[in-house]
Automatic annotation (TrEMBL):
Residues 436-477, 592-632 form the EGF-like domain. Disulfide bonds join 89-111, 91-92. Binds 1 zinc ion per subunit. It comes from Oreochromis niloticus (Nile tilapia). This is Metalloendopeptidase. Residues 1-30 are annotated as: Disordered. The gene is BMP1.
């Protein structure tokens, strides 16, 4: 009886497997060697992707895991695996498993969107485009006239031997279509989604077994089919629980009523400690005894239920919960904040105690970091300690949006804590840990002749002052340069004032007393090279090491600006290659006491040392308090009334944060316009600027006419408002972050203005009342009223350089819309002209000043009027 039941069970399983396979292969590869064994796809993410991009990749992989039986796992030793990288093809991937080594999934420029990554992963799994099915023409029509030239090959049908649809109907909502307008001429809309929105997009690859589920929430429950009313014979179910890396899963069975047999041979529930059917067995259970609580070693559990008897029991039910923190004893792995890459929950506290093998240190490298920002990280934070407990030495407490530097413990243990309060939640962090050794501690000093510098995951050799590293990168040889402690002096390149020799590497290390800063001035500068500085160059750093703060890398014939160190020492390095030689440089240096070095000069944020004095500055997002030392938080909505200045995106010149909306309301003197000039632009690119962008409006708010929406890296032409107000709105989404933008603005005289019944003002220059008008002014205003109305000009203040014929500085008025119209008068001196009325609906005001005497200027009021009988004669 047992043999018959077992045989029948196997037949049932094969039938279920055939049905599962049938559901998995809509427009799928027909070549079995391209199928990933057990649906397991190892992956590696290249180091050139940002934290937000990595988060999108992981979200897309979890999306496929949620709706199919595939599993993505970080590669360890697997021969075949995928690599997220950037190839010239842009968004592209090999279809299915290539085998024999790594294969690329290219996520190029503008491809790092959730829907696009989901689409490309569909290719990795083994799916061709839905519209390449051999039976495509029975369901859709390809209008070839709408295809971009050169892209026709993307719409060719596959051969029947390449694609196996197995009778499944065509899925018009498939994720494996292109986006609606990809490779089209944008004539008509087409089918295609960027998300798995319709059941047809994924039902073909839903379950490995007949029943079960992929569970990704931080807590949940599941039970056998029909519970508590009994289960059927020959049932096979699989549940996969997957939580955030760094978390563990606590599994509790709340009811158990299965047929009892020896070794639970027939009906049973198996729990495995990992992501697949061959993971280590935690236990096999049957009967009516509740198993003890089960805790996973990592962030995944595999639960499999099989029944082969006709005995009817209630079945089982279970609950699970993800817990963060705990003991981590592995050589390497990943830790993420709860719910990463989505926002972490409020009031969470997780503590991880990482231990690697004796004789090694623990290396920690953050891949992504976005924690609520605060000056002292008082709210949400990540804390790292050098040891195994909360009392171990503190290595750092981190928050904000900047990734912490790589961290290394001094023993084989590291303590890591994440805490969140009850308010703002962010995306959190993802970090890799690994065992690290100090190659420089070996008896041979890392095979370095003089100094060995350990780095995370590697090391490098260095030389003492007066020596340089030889070509073998291990031995040292005599060099120019030296160690200088004088308060002032001069340095030159070798052979000065003649040409410097080839293949030289000179390092000068300048050291001044504590609280002093060193200023370097180049008197003469001439080296080989251009902006790239690839051949011969000079590097200047604050500090004595080669990885200290870099002030600049210089070459060519242009003298660098004056450089002041940020501490009491400075490193100057000169390097020449074996080709072109020039005169080199001559420079002098001097030292000055730095008031900022003691208590930060009393400044809350940044203290800027100047020669003989200092000043306080605030970081972006903050503004200086009236006491000139403290900083207070500044909002992201700015009202600016100055006549000139600079504006920039949040956190400039570093990357702007995600999900940010900022505005600038610019206003200047009436009668003047605002001219905006872009200095730098570096935003996420898109054809229609649909993602991150800056939009400019010709007025006081976003209800005014748009002057343009900008994104990408190309600097727009200057933008000029039609009147004295301009409104800017910057928006960033939750994916790609770039540096943003920086722009200068200034008031410009002249323009076209509308006269109304309500009186308006017009001033000769933007700083009227504060300064005299500037020399070399040439301004033209055109004031126009509605049809049937004239324009009245009333001078309130008038003080222009006087001359008999008004030949130097003057104001001219013309009765019309341009300077070819009849002139109403030319005015100068200090007597305000009488009121002026136009005969038509327009008047032109022209103001000219030479470069000699400047006066106060003029203030005019203008309005529209029906009284046009009196016209003042020209003077």
């Amino acid at each position: 009886a047992n043999s018959s039941t077992s045989s029948e069970n196997r037949r049932s399983e094969r039938a279920a497997d055939r049905q599962s396979l049938r559901r998995q292969r809509r427009a799928a590869t027909a070549r079995p060697e391209r199928v990933w064994p057990d649906g397991i796809i190892p992956y590696v993410i290249s180091g050139n992707f940002s934290g937000s991009q990595r988060a999108i990749f992981r979200q897309a992989m979890r999306h496929w895991e949620k709706h199919t039986c595939v599993t993505f796992t970080e590669r360890t030793t697997e021969e075949s695996y995928i690599v997220f990288t950037y190839r010239p093809c842009g968004c592209c991937s090999y279809v299915g498993r290539r085998g024999g080594g790594p294969q690329a999934i290219s996520i190029g420029k503008n491809c790092d969107k959730f829907g696009i990554v989901v689409h490309e992963l569909g290719h990795v799994i083994g799916f061709w485009h839905e519209h390449t099915r051999p039976d495509r023409d029975e369901h859709v029509s390809i209008i070839r006239d709408n295809i971009q030239q050169g892209q026709e090959y993307n719409f060719l049908k596959m051969e029947p031997g390449e694609v196996d649809s197995l009778g499944e109907v065509y899925d018009f909502g498939s994720i494996m279509h292109y986006a609606r307008n990809t490779f089209s001429r944008l004539v008509y809309k087409a089918c295609g989604l960027r998300l798995l929105k319709t059941p047809g997009s994924f039902s073909f690859l839903f379950y490995l077994a007949k029943c079960g589920e992929s569970l990704q929430d931080s807590s949940g429950n599941f039970s056998s089919p029909g519970f508590p009313n009994g289960y059927s014979a020959y049932t096979h179910c699989v549940w996969r629980i997957s939580v955030t890396p760094g978390e563990k899963i606590v599994l509790n069975f709340t009811s158990m009523d299965l047929f009892r047999s020896h070794l639970c041979w027939y009906d049973h529930v198996e729990v495995r400690d990992g992501f697949w059917r061959k993971a280590p067995l935690k236990g096999r259970f049957c009967g009516d005894t509740l198993p003890a609580q089960i805790i996973s070693t990592d962030s995944r559990l595999w639960i499999e239920f099989r029944s082969s008897s006709s005995w009817v029991g209630k079945g089982f039910s279970a609950i699970y919960e993800a817990i963060c923190g705990g003991e981590v004893k592995r050589e390497s792995g990943q830790i993420q904040s709860p719910n990463y890459p989505d926002e972490y929950q409020s009031n969470k506290e997780c503590v991880w105690k990482i231990t690697v093998a004796e004789g090694f240190d623990v290396g920690l490298s953050f891949q992504s970091f976005e924690i609520e920002k605060h000056d002292s990280c008082a709210y949400d934070y990540v804390e790292v300690r050098d040891g195994a407990s909360e009392s171990s030495p503190l290595l750092g407490r981190f928050c904000g949006y900047d990734k912490p530097d790589d961290i290394k413990s001094t023993s084989n243990q590291l303590w890591l804590k994440f805490a969140s309060d009850g308010s703002v939640n962010k995306a959190g962090f993802a970090a890799n840990f690994f065992k690290e050794m100090d190659e420089c501690s070996r008896p041979d000093n890392g095979n370095c002749e003089q100094r060995c510098l350990n780095t995370l995951g590697s090391y490098r050799c260095a030389c003492d002052p007066g020596y340089e590293l030889a070509a073998d990168k291990h031995t040292c040889e005599t060099a120019c340069g030296g160690f200088i402690t004088k308060l002032n002096g001069s340095i030159t390149t070798p052979g000065w004032p003649k040409e410097y020799p080839p293949n030289k590497n000179c390092v000068w290390q300048l050291v001044a007393p504590i609280q002093y800063r060193i200023t370097l001035v180049f008197d003469v500068f001439e080296t080989e090279g251009n902006d790239v500085c690839k051949y011969d160059f000079v590097e200047v750093r604050s500090g004595l090491s080669s990885d200290s703060k870099l002030h600049g890398k210089f070459c060519g014939a242009e003298k660098p600006e004056v450089i002041t160190s940020q501490q009491n020492n400075m490193r100057i390095e000169f390097k020449s290659d074996n080709t072109v030689s020039k005169r080199g440089f001559k420079a002098h240096f001097f030292s000055d006491i730095d008031e900022c070095s003691k208590g930060n000069g009393g400044c809350q944020h940044e203290c800027v040392n100047t020669f003989g004095s200092y000043s306080c500055q605030c970081r972006r997002g903050f503004m200086l308090h009236d006491n000139r030392h403290d900083c207070k938080e500044a909002g992201c909505d700015h009202v600016i009334n100055s006549v000139s200045g600079t504006i920039a995106s949040p956190n400039w010149p570093d990357k702007y944060p995600s999900k940010k909306a900022c505005t600038w309301s610019l206003s200047t003197t009436p009668g003047h316009r605002i001219k905006l000039i872009f200095n730098e632009v570096d935003m996420e690119a898109h054809l229609e600027c649909a993602y991150d962008h800056l939009e400019i409006y010709d007025g006081r708010d976003n209800r005014a006419a748009s002057l343009g929406r900008f994104c990408g890296t190309k600097k727009p032409s200057p933008v000029i408002s039609s009147a004295n107000k301009m409104f800017l709105r910057f928006f960033s989404d939750n994916s790609v972050q770039k540096r943003g933008f920086e722009a200068s603005y200034r008031a410009e005289c002249g323009g076209s203005f509308k006269a109304e019944v309500k009186t308006k003002d017009l001033y000769s220059h933007a700083q009227f009342g504060d300064n005299n008008y500037p020399g070399g002014s040439d301004c033209l205003w055109v004031v126009t009223a509605e049809k049937g109305y004239g324009v009245e000009i009333i001078f309130q203040v008038f003080e222009i350089e006087e001359e008999a014929d008004c030949g130097y500085d003057y104001v001219e008025l013309y009765d019309g819309a341009d300077t070819k119209s009849p002139r109403l008068g030319r005015y100068c001196g200090s007597g305000a002209p009488e009121d002026v009325y136009s005969a038509g609906d327009s008047i032109v005001l022209k103001f000219h000043s030479d470069d000699s005497i400047n006066k106060k200027g003029f203030h005019v009021r203008y309005t529209s009027t029906k009284f046009q009988d009196t016209l003042h004669a020209s003077k």
